[in-house]
Amino acid sequence: MILILVLWSIIFILVSVMLTLSIIINKKMMIDREKSSPFECGFDPQNSSRMPFSMRFFIITLIFLIFDVEIALLLPMNILSINFTVGVSIILFVIILLVGVLYEWKEGALSWIK
Fold first, then answer.
1. Which compartment or compartments is the protein found in (predicted)?
2. Residue percentage of the chain with pLDDT more than 70
């Protein structure tokens, strides 16, 4: 019983020393609210959520989601046995996506400099 008590006290002392050392040698400043916030996107979470947002970020997000869904739809098609119908549907799907990318490129949604 005494051995268990001694072991627990040693563990408690070690944990306390490690926590104290980590607080002392921590490089983060309490003043730096932006780095300590969970979202490092440049918005202050305490302010209003109705701040203006750049449409370029929104469009890039939509383009990413479209091509993410494209991968999710193309992978099962490739796993199936490749026959004429599956091959034509894959080619048609890729052509539609290629036309969409070319349209976005022509409209300037993919360029950051205007």
1. Membrane; Mitochondrion membrane
2. 68
